């Protein structure tokens, strides 16, 4: 079932999949999620991925949120131990976000014809244990790695605490979420801003460690379309790209059936794929220039140049662009709609299309755009602060 998430649907189906481990406190936002580091251990798979920390969700005190943060154009609705935060402007723009996961499930924007249109694609399905599996929307998918006394440590943020809300329903609404590692040495701020014609997601990372910090991943957006057959990406001409396996995360919506080849087997021998996973597991950040040069040459060998400025997304596609423009336009002829997607801070852009084999207006009628650090990790020096993000612009007003 594909839909903008509604409270009635959640009330009947949604059961948090994470175990709550701390009692309610007042105010609850003073109790930040307690993430524990897990040492990196190579698995026996051909491409060992970093281990990530499992962060339990904190219970939500709905009465406190309503008393503390209402009045800026944001309302809250409880869903079990989680809640939905709804941001609404007077011009008709509406965004819903799940807390504490930070997943943006809906962005309804006013159109030129006077109505509203859902720009994000979210699907809800029932898991094996009867709980609801939520996929799609806009999500943060990042992994942080560093060394601690010679041991490689990996951590992924998955639970956020509402920190501040600014603005008003007439002009813009800004919601700030916080997360931090268990030792308080990695601080994250996630800022979601709804304006009359745009939705932006920004990430601010503070490395308080005395050692370098490496970040990989992306801000992944599922844009709903009538069908990939009727969808085009405009403005990517002459950008370099390489073919990549499907980027999978907790919230990514994959059209692959169970047991189907995910693409890793077919692409496992490409030098650029090997380089990707070598980067994820690298401990020595002071490798010689010769080694870095060879890696760069290997990556260049797998690069291709985009030759279509009006790229039709009807073919199944999973690409990473390395020098694409800071923004490009997605046109959906089926819905007579277009959006502009842009980024800052990130050097790479991920583009995925499930292809035109999916049914029109179906669960898989979407494309994915990710502002990314996949091929080349972002490195933060000791005491450094990094900022980056994306925006989805609605030009239809």
TrEMBL record:
Q: What one GO molecular function would you report for this record? A: glucose-6-phosphate 1-epimerase activity
InterPro entries xrefs: Gal_mutarotase_sf_dom, GH-type_carb-bd
Give the GO biological process terms: carbohydrate metabolic process
Q: Which GO terms describe its cellular component?
A: cytoplasm
Q: Which residues form a coiled coil?
A: none
Please give the residue ranges the record annotates as the region Disordered: 283-306
Transmembrane stretches in the record are none
The protein's name: NDH-dependent cyclic electron flow 5
Q: Which organism is it from?
A: Clitoria ternatea (Butterfly pea)
């Amino acid at each position: 079932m594909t839909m903008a998430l509604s409270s009635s649907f959640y009330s009947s189906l949604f059961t948090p999949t994470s175990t709550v481990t701390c009692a309610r406190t007042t105010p609850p936002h003073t109790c930040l999620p307690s993430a524990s580091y897990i040492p990196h251990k190579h698995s026996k798979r051909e491409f060992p991925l970093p281990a990530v920390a499992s962060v339990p969700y904190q219970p939500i005190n709905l009465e406190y949120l309503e008393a503390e943060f209402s009045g800026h154009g944001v309302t809250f609705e409880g869903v079990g131990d989680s809640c939905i935060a709804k941001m609404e402007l007077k011009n008709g723009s509406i965004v819903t976000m799940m807390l504490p996961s930070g997943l943006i499930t809906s962005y309804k924007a006013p159109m030129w014809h006077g109505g509203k249109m859902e720009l994000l694609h979210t699907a809800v399905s029932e898991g094996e244990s009867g709980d609801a599996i939520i996929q799609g929307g806009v999500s943060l998918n990042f992994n942080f790695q560093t060394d601690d006394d010679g041991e490689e440590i990996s951590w992924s943020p998955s639970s956020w605490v509402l920190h501040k809300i600014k603005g008003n329903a007439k002009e813009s609404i800004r919601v700030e979420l916080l997360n931090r590692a268990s030792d308080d040495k990695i601080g994250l701020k996630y800022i979601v801003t709804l304006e009359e014609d745009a939705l932006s997601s920004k990430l601010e990372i503070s490395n308080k460690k005395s050692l370098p910090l490496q970040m990989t991943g992306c801000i992944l957006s599922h844009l709903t379309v009538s069908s990939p057959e009727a969808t085009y990406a405009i403005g990517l001409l002459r950008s370099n790209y390489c073919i990549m396996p499907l980027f999978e995360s907790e919230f990514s919506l994959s059209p692959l059936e169970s047991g189907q080849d995910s693409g890793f087997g077919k692409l496992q021998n490409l030098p650029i794929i090997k380089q990707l996973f070598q980067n994820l597991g690298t401990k020595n950040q002071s490798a010689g220039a010769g080694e870095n040069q060879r890696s760069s040459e290997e990556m260049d060998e797998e690069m291709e140049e985009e030759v279509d400025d009006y790229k039709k997304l009807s073919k199944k596609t999973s690409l990473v662009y390395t020098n694409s423009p800071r923004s490009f336009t997605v046109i959906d002829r089926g819905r007579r709609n277009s959006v502009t997607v842009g980024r800052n801070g990130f050097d790479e852009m991920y583009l995925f299309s499930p292809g035109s084999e999916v049914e029109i207006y179906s669960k898989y009628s979407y494309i994915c755009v990710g502002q990314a650090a996949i091929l080349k990790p972002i490195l933060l020096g000791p005491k450094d602060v990094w900022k980056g993000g994306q925006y989805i612009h609605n030009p239809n007003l």
